[in-house]
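Record type: monomer structure entry
Structure origin: computed from sequence
Chain ID: A
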Amino acid sequence: MNYLGFLHGLIAFTLIGLFHPVVIKAEYYLGRKSILIFVVVGFLSLIGSLATENILISTSFGIFAFCCFWSIKEVIEQEERVLEGRFPKNPKRVYKER
């Protein structure tokens, strides 16, 4: 029996679930500055995916990389949700109103 597809799905499910609170916290504490972190970590993970011969590790790095890339979009949308009042504002930050 081949468990590789199941493991890839489990890894994707877990990483997507973990990235939701990471994006919320990143926007709260860093705002759009966190985008740079997601870009750098995403590209490093992508390079790791391309450089690794083990299929499970390679796909895990790839899934992680694209979760980082998707988080770039989510940080921008999270900022909009904060401005709409659906999430709390960080009192230590200045927000640019639309």
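Annotation 1: The chain has one domain: 4-83.
Annotation 2: The chain has a mean pLDDT of 95.
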